[in-house]
Amino acid sequence: MSRHNISGLGTVAAAALIAALATVAAGQTGAVGPPYAPPRTADGHPDLQGVWRVWNLAKYDVEPHSTSQGVPAGAGVIVDPANGMIPYKPWALARKRQNFASSRIKYPYDPLQNADPLAKCYIPGVPRITYLGWPFEIVQTKDFVGIVYEWMHIRRMIPRAHAGPEAT
């Protein structure tokens, strides 16, 4: 590869980085213009079809969290309430902490002793399966919404209520 091509690649990479940062910065400003109106299916429902993939750390915890044993810090994904925290009852918060403690790797490692369903190759629940980072596809018909996860080829078929588009 010639020196000219290498510097050309560097210029292209720098331009791409600047464009990406400008896009992120623009996304941080207040909303300008009309509110988002999602595309609609032929029967008037929001069209969510396509292949999706989540790129965040919510697979560890959906709430904002700092780093801990085996868990990197993450921003969380909860938008209501505004503080991003689930308003747990005291007993439920104690159970959450107990589940986390019993899912940490102990030596000698025994998956049967681990409280994490993934350690035993069990199917994770919703929403965790969505946040694992594997792609998934949403398919819509008039009778159901199907979600097909690449992870273990799990699929969910969600029947649609036939109340019309005003119900969505």
Mean pLDDT: 78
What is the string of SSEs from the N terminus onward? Answer: HEHHEEE
The helicity comes to 25-40%
The computed structural class is alpha+beta
> How far from one another are the termini?
55 Å
Oligomer: single chain
Number of helices: 3
- Globally, the shape reads globular
Radius of gyration: 22 Å
Which strand-content bin applies to the residues? 5-15%
3D architecture notes:
The protein contains three helices and four strands, in the order αβααβββ. It has 168 residues and is of the alpha+beta class. The protein has one domain (35-167). A hairpin with a 3-residue loop joins strand 2 and strand 3. The longest helix is centred in the first third of the chain and has 25 residues, at 3-27. The radius of gyration is 22 Å and the shape is globular.
Which structural traits does this protein have?
disordered N terminus, about 170 residues, alpha+beta, four-stranded antiparallel beta sheet, single chain, about 10% strand
In short, what is this structure?
With 168 residues, the chain is an alpha+beta fold. The chain has helices at 3-27, 90-102, 128-131; strands spanning 50-52, 136-140, 144-149, 155-159.
Present the secondary structure layout.
Elements: H1 3-27, E1 50-52, H2 90-102, H3 128-131, E2 136-140, E3 144-149, E4 155-159
Antiparallel strand pairs: 1-2, 2-3, 3-4
